[in-house]
TrEMBL record:
PANTHER family: NUCLEOLUS AND NEURAL PROGENITOR PROTEIN. GO terms for biological process: positive regulation of Notch signaling pathway. GO terms for cellular component: nucleus. InterPro entries: Nepro, Nepro_N. It comes from the Eukaryota. It comes from Glossina pallidipes. Pfam families: NEPRO_N. This is DUF4477 domain-containing protein. Residues 5-188 form the Nucleolus and neural progenitor protein-like N-terminal domain.
Length: 350
């Protein structure tokens, strides 16, 4: 079987218009293409928005659901949607429509019509779009079956419900767009033999593609049947649970054991110990007393900060006060330094 339509890197043949003398089929060709564009435009925007929503949900839940089979089906669905976007069949069809004559001329009038090779490329792209719609519908049905099971067991209930709604929307739009592609193929295929061939030899040595007479129609009841069967399973499960709840279940009486009271003692209130050391600032009467006090406190603060007199003073505050005192003493202002240091200790200790 020839899968040339599945070749994503299929090169477009050079767009050539060839003179012909028969153009009565052109209005019918225009009518089929215009009808497709009118019907396709009503669903295309909603389809793209729903596909974008699905991509955002996948990106947000990638780490949570990456090992789940249903999430893998959704990733396959997202890949098919991205490929459908890259095929860009609407642009190819619009280019072909713009190259057709606007009206039908009398027989014998020479007009220029696109070559059959360009038309074959357009039909191959249309088959690829139809197959992608089939792929999308299959992925939707598989993923929907999985998330219906998740909803029944209340596993990730909210996100599963949201994903199921998005899948149902994509499936519904896929059926409508797929039917449009089927109808367009049925209308375009008969005009293939009426387009002129390019007389120049073809560079590629591939055999001519055998186009199918028609494309398969989409099964509109596939997802609905799965949902209905899942709902039936849920109903049967609820009936079994209700039957179990209605059943008279007799419980055997159990005699309670009497435990003796255990003596756990008396709660003792622990009082906080007072300060181990008391200090009066009035003891510092001279600069020498302050020097001895600083040396003593430095040693005690380095050993155990909780047992020294200046335990409530932070390190940077203590270093700053000592530095100010030494600076005043160096400048010959011993009395002023003593006064400042004593005021500092009174504010911090008391």
């Amino acid at each position: 079987m020839d899968y040339r339509w599945n070749n994503f890197d299929l090169k477009r043949p050079p767009f050539i218009t060839i003179p012909a003398k028969y153009s009565k089929f052109v209005p019918l060709l225009h009518a089929g293409i215009d009808e497709y564009f009118c019907s396709h435009g009503t669903y295309d925007e909603i389809f793209n928005e729903t596909a974008a929503l699905l991509s955002r949900l996948i990106a947000r839940r990638k780490n949570s659901f990456r090992r789940m089979q249903g999430f893998r089906d959704i990733c396959k669905l997202n890949a098919a949607l991205c490929r459908l976007l890259r095929v860009d069949f609407g642009n190819e069809l619009d280019i072909f429509r713009s190259s057709l004559p606007d009206v039908a001329y009398e027989d014998g009038t020479e007009i220029y019509i696109p070559a059959r090779e360009c038309y074959d490329f357009l039909l191959l792209r249309l088959i690829a779009v139809h197959k992608l719609y089939e792929r999308i519908q299959n992925c939707c049905s598989k993923a929907a079956d999985y998330f219906l099971h998740q909803i029944k067991v209340y596993h990730f209930f909210e996100i599963s419900t949201l994903l199921l709604a998005v899948l149902a929307k994509i499936n519904d739009l896929t059926i409508k767009l797929g039917d449009l592609s089927t109808n367009l193929y049925r209308r375009l295929l008969p005009f293939r033999v009426k387009l002129p061939r390019n007389i120049k030899p073809n560079v590629s040595s591939e055999p001519e593609f055998v186009f199918p007479k028609k494309l398969e129609e989409f099964d509109k009841k596939r997802l609905c049947d799965q949902s209905f069967s899942s709902l039936q399973d849920t109903t049967q499960m609820e009936e079994k649970l209700n039957h179990l709840l209605r059943a008279d279940s007799t419980l055997a009486p159990v005699r309670a054991k009497c435990f003796r009271k255990i003596d756990i003692g008396v709660e003792v209130e622990r009082q906080e110990k007072g300060r181990t050391k008391t200090f009066k600032v009035d003891q510092l009467t001279t600069a020498e007393d302050v020097k001895r006090f600083i040396l003593k406190e430095r040693k005690e603060r380095s050993n155990n900060l909780t047992k020294c007199v200046t335990r409530n003073i932070k390190c940077h505050e203590w270093l700053g006060a000592v530095k100010v005192f030494e600076k005043k003493l160096h400048n010959g202002e011993a009395k002023k330094g003593l006064s400042v240091f004593r005021k500092f200790l009174e504010a911090k200790i008391n």
